[in-house]
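Lab notes, practical 5.
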Amino acid sequence: MQEEIVNKVAQSGLITLDLEEFYPEGERILYDIKDNLWEGLVLKEKDFREFVKNNDWTQYKNKFIAVTCSSDAIVPTWAYMLLTSALQPFAKRVVFGDIKMLETILFLDAINKINPQEYTDTRIVIKGCSNKPVPESAYVELISRLKPFARSIMYGEACSTVPIYKKPKG
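Output from the prediction step:
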């Protein structure tokens, strides 16, 4: 007689959260305002306003945009605001910073949609391996959001976890 194989992980009541599933699909673009600077140094208001008014912003439709200036120039805050105002009707999301900052903000947006109360007194494993870029900040934010509710939080795979948090008894 053959023994039945029992999946103890499935019976453990562990909830696995895979941050890769929170990855917003879509193209990421870095818009560098340095290309709008006169001689790479100065932003001329009249020229910049004319560019923003006449540029075809539809090319950014449904894309995630990080706006930055990689040049060592002083760019007035209103320029980033004006650029964002032009991009916003087309882009899925516009942020100030580099691509890494864009990823961080996209994951924060996704994590903030989680209802942490749904994880009250649960045992959670936050999956560690992913094929998509998950910033460390997403793991930090997820722990901060779930810790007040979860019974325990672990990191890794269900068969090999690192304990992160266990609610004190009492």
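Observations recorded by the TA: Residues 6-11 have pLDDT under 50 and may be disordered. The chain has two domains: 8-24+115-166, 28-91.
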